Amino acid sequence: MSPTQPEKNSAKSNGHSNEDVDGEHNEWKFRAPYKVHDNDPNFKALYEGSCHCGKVQYQLSREKPISAKFCHCSTCQVLHGAPFQWAAIFHKEDINFTHGHSDLGWYESSEKTTRHKLPCKVSCAYCRSPIMDEGRNMILLFPSLIKFKGRGEKEKFDPECHMFYGNRQLDIKDGRPKWTGINGKSELVEDSPVEMVRKRKREIEEEKEKGVEGEKKREKI
Ligand SMILES: [Zn+2]
Ligand SMILES: [Zn+2]
User: Fold this and answer.
1) Rounded to the nearest whole angstrom, what is the distance from the C-alpha of residue 144 to the centroid of ligand 1?
2) Same-domain check for residues 189 and 219
3) Are 29 and 12 in contact (CB under 8 A)?
């Protein structure tokens, strides 16, 4: 019996058709992040979040995201209808949907398909609130959906940087590091902390030197 069989049986008894449940191609529906942690003593709910209409509701078991950032890329701007996106990274096992498994919709931006194909955007199929970006190994949640109890909790989700800031719709002078593209792999600009800018410049110089040396070596070969 596959480890997901009990969940599959309960989905069927809740009225889901066999073709929505059976077979290898439906396995993902019963694995993290969609796996239900009912009666799981290891899953401790620390936060709760929900979409605008309330059909989709979830819990989180990790106190602090692995990291949090603001993304100014054009895909986020369009898909969120906002100047930039606030995302917090979690493991897939950190989330438990308590409502709305059947009310989710998917969108994969390179093929523009609404099939579940990773990495994809996950939203409420009814009110269309973006719920998360599901990557191959991680999920990026949108903390605006979480009901924080006080500032202390919210501070744990504080973004550590801006990414794709080169594509920004507006300037945000908050002193956070600002990467032109992906964080750690592009240039730091505007009012990024001076020390970080110097460090990044040195890294870029070193990378260039290594590149030149590498070319010289290749020429010799
Ligand atoms: Zn909704
Ligand atoms: Zn983005």
Assistant:
1) 14
2) yes
3) no
